[in-house]
Design brief:
about 220 residues; Serine Threonine Protein Phosphatase 5, Tetratricopeptide repeat; TPR-like_helical_dom_sf; 2 domains
Length: about 220
């Protein structure tokens, strides 16, 4: 996990461990250094899970998929480029495979193709609009890599709207407001309070709020 996401107050370390895996698609790596996805939060493709619902939606998705899959395979890590090529071919056959799109986004981000990662995760968010992972990944990408803070806010907000018990999502918004999107720094405290209200049994956000009010963050 990057140093930006490490909670600076030691007393919060134990609580932070409970949410450290929030961006599971970015931080889990194989022994060989390859970014790997987990199957814990994402379902396998289902033939019964039909998407899209109408012709217009279908055309939009086809265009987005074509843009994502037709992109040049970046050079770099040989294993990553091979997996990206193989996964892209699989998605041409199984465009409803959520985990595949998430992994393509990870691989393209790993290889430095941030726009390609965005396309893959946008597609994932469209075929599963009630899954939070793609939105969270997009929010992180636009915050720290593409530096488009309004878009980062949009996607990070969508992640917690979809999953109100996603505690780390409120911290992500807090970080956006305090570290980068200074025009909206006034929202930093309120987003923590929102998360606390929706997750009254969790002390992580309360600890961050206490430290923030004390000037330690």
């Amino acid at each position: 996990m990057s140093k930006r996401n490490i909670v600076v107050v030691a007393v919060l370390a134990a609580a932070a461990l409970g949410t450290a895996g929030f961006f599971i698609w970015r931080n889990i790596n194989s022994p060989g250094g390859m970014p790997r996805s987990s199957t814990s939060d994402v379902e396998s493709p289902k033939t019964s899970d039909v998407f899209p619902r109408d012709v217009k939606e279908s055309d939009e998705l086809e265009t987005l998929a074509r843009q994502a899959l037709a992109r040049k395979i970046p050079s770099g890590n040989e294993a990553a480029t091979k997996e990206l090529k193989d996964m892209s071919l699989q998605l041409e056959r199984e465009p409803n495979y959520l985990q595949g799109w998430l992994q393509v986004g990870i691989l393209r981000k790993f290889l430095g193709d941030y726009d390609g990662a965005s396309l893959a995760w946008q597609y994932a968010s469209l075929i599963r609009p009630q899954e939070y992972i793609a939105f969270s990944n997009l929010g992180d990408l636009y915050h720290y890599y593409l530096k488009d803070f309004p878009k980062a806010e949009k996607y990070l907000r969508r992640a917690v709207d979809v999953k109100p018990d996603y505690v780390a999502g409120y911290k992500n918004l807090f970080d956006l407001y305090t570290l980068s999107y200074k025009e909206k720094k006034n929202l930093a405290e309120s987003v923590l309070l929102e998360g606390i209200k929706k997750n009254p049994g969790d002390n992580y956000l309360q600890g961050i709020l206490t430290s923030y009010r004390a000037g330690d963050l």
